[in-house]
Design a protein that fits this description.
Blueprint (H helix, E strand, L loop, with lengths): L3 H39 L5 E3 L3 E3 L2 H4 L1 H12 L6 H6 L3 H27 L1 H6 L2 H28 L1 H4 L2 H11 L1 H11 L1 H25 L1
Antiparallel strand pairs: 1-2
Keywords: Membrane, Transmembrane, Transmembrane helix
Amino acid sequence: AMDPNDDRRWSKWLEKFKFASIPVVSVCFTWWHVWLGIQMCWYPIEFVGIKPCFGWQGIVPRRANIMAERSCDLMIGNLITIEEVIDRVEPEDFFRRLGPTLGECCAAVLEKLALKHCPQVWSMLPEPVKVELREKILEQSQQMFRPIIGDLKANVNQIFNIKQMAVDALIEDKPLLVKMFQEIGRKEFTFVLHVAAVMGFFLGIVQMLLW
């Protein structure tokens, strides 16, 4: 049989453990429900449940159009301008990156025009000559790139609606939109979680004292 003294000591220890666990449970619960609230801002990306009422979709992806527009309003014009972005484009680098694609396009256009206007001459030309013609056209295209890029920089706002392009891209790619918000607010969300844990601890102490 268990010694009555041991039974009383066990009961007292268990009672103290219950009191001591109140702050720990409070910290875990407060931190968890704040973490869950933050996660519910992002996920799920698409609606899960029975529309329109029974289910959930992350706040950011659900309001993707508004979130994307506001983020672009903040970034474009305030943090960085379109002109600053375009000024970073160098014609040589631009051409080098587009080289393979541009070469294929030039070759296709050359062949199409040659077959249309002088098909017999084109068919009689040896392949090395055709290759040389393609290379010459590509070389001429490279020389034209600098004035084209200059015109693009000078008239970028008339040629492209960069803001709308960015908004459309973010709306189309909701995971990217979510990731962008997560990266931008990473420090703030971490701070909120830390504050939640501290608040949970102090609330647990208060509950323990009032118990």
